[in-house]
Design goal:
Pfam families: Response_reg (PF00072), Trans_reg_C (PF00486). By secondary structure, the protein is of the alpha/beta class. It is 38% helix and 24% strand. The chain has 8 helices and 14 strands. The longest helix has 14 residues. The two termini are 19 Å apart.
Amino acid sequence: MWEVLLLEDDAALGRGVRLALQSEKLHVTRCGTLVQAREAWGRGAFDLLILDVNLPDGSGLGWLRELRRESAVPVILLTANDMETDIVAGLETGADDYITKPFSLAVLRARVNAQLRRGTPAPSACYEAEGLSLDFERMEFRRDGQIVELSKTEQKLLRVLVENRGRTVPRETLLDRVWTDGAEYVEENALSVTVKRLRDKLEEMPSKPRLLKTVYGIGYTWVAK
């Protein structure tokens, strides 16, 4: 699954962009300030950054300049500045594309897809390790050759963890990506209960998991194999 970080201080526009881009193969994390975006960037691994230039707590170009010292992740700038000098400045700072407001969501979606196609291939839909065979394309899951029945919620949680194996995925991120039915409130223990069920079904010793591990105070990780 592709991971996109969207930094847009206009809440209505941000929601619209997220709805236009989000799919089974692409997840959007939306932030409204530089502080929030820096925190999100530090927690996760992103395949693309969509960045507003004029922000309430700083300059998007300033952050882009910092990012380019450590990352080559594709960046699309969103801005109301349509002067040629502003566009040139954005591209010379390290942006891969530049879209001026107002813009078509269909055009933005096409440009996002174009940038992602140039990057790293999307994660494989199949995974095998420790006697497990997980096929997320067919939604077939086996342990030691035997079919394992997983609920829709268990499937979604497992996929997020496996596609981000080797990384710690915060609880908040998992709740946002797995419980997507529009409910305003998710019970505090819903995630913990689902994790326990996955361990019971997939781990050889659920009480001493080798694959689905807890990172205390943060979230969970699927150990890379």
